[in-house]
Write a structure and sequence with these properties.
The complex is a heterodimer.
Chain A: E1 4-6, E2 11-14, E3 19-25, E4 30-38, E5 45-50, E6 54-58, E7 61-66, E8 71-76, E9 85-93, E10 99-101, E11 105-110
Chain B: E1 5-7, E2 10-13, E3 19-24, E4 31-38, E5 42-50, E6 53-57, E7 64-68, E8 74-78, E9 87-94, E10 104-105, E11 109-113
Parallel strand pairs in B: 2-11
Antiparallel strand pairs in B: 1-3, 3-8, 4-5, 4-9, 5-6, 7-8, 9-10, 9-11
The chains are: A mainly beta, B mainly beta.
């Protein structure tokens, strides 16, 4: 079992729709959860972080965390073509000194 | 403030050679992590350094090694290169490498092994 699992996609949504990206992790000791966005040919950049159960909203992005189910998700509202990228789920555990990434979900937003 | 700087940007090597990649973190950042990115495997953790000490290491063979200098700059070395080592190598820095810190990535070094 991979430490962090994501559906590789591609996920295709029309412009203006909600894109839903999901991630599961195996280490129950995980404490911090991140979503990075990576455009083709570019480096990953952080878009959201979440540390406690529940929802966290930032503009059009909402991260959701359920530690009991070991599940993290990212919702993108009013999706734009510029949101087309690979979204990487990342997990960090306390004292582990490493951030583990999922393989990423490719998102396409059609104009 | 300058971002994370990785050099060189591209490298072409042949099997059996060795290679050294360099990473300069954001000023003031003391934690440096290295990742290997391939289309099939995604981002794979190589190692993390803080204050010249390796704090964690991923599941890579001993041919992959690294070090960190007193100014927080880091290098990674791959000896006896294999075709499968062809990948994008990304370096990321953070202030102290604590649990809640996000990573800032460099542009990466694209290594091709022929």
């Amino acid at each position: 079992q991979k430490e962090v699992e994501q559906n590789s996609g591609p996920l295709s949504v029309p412009e203006g729709a909600i894109a839903s990206l999901n991630c599961t992790y195996s280490d129950r000791g995980s404490q911090s959860f991140f979503w990075y966005r990576q455009y083709s040919g570019k480096s990953p950049e952080l878009i959201m972080s979440i540390y406690s159960n529940g929802d966290k909203e930032d503009g059009r992005f909402t991260a959701q965390l359920n530690k009991a189910s070991q599940y993290v998700s990212l919702l993108i509202r009013d999706s734009q073509p510029s949101d087309s990228a690979t979204y990487l789920c990342a997990v960090r555990n306390t004292g582990g000194f490493k951030t583990i990434f999922g393989a990423g979900t490719r998102l396409f937003v059609k104009a | 403030k300058a971002g994370v700087t990785q050099t060189p940007r591209y490298l072409i090597k042949t099997r059996g050679q060795q290679v050294t990649l360099s990473c300069s973190p954001i000023s003031g950042h003391r934690s440096v992590s290295w990742y290997q990115q391939t289309p099939g495997q995604g981002l794979q953790f190589l190692f993390e350094y803080f204050s010249e000490t390796q704090r964690n290491k991923g599941n890579f063979p001993g041919r992959f090694s690294g070090r960190q200098f007193s100014n927080s700059r880091s290098e990674m070395n791959v000896s006896t290169l294999e075709l499968g080592d062809s990948a994008l190598y990304l370096c990321a820095s953070s202030p102290a490498g604590t649990t809640n810190e996000k990573l800032f990535f460099g542009s990466g070094t694209q290594l091709s092994v022929l």
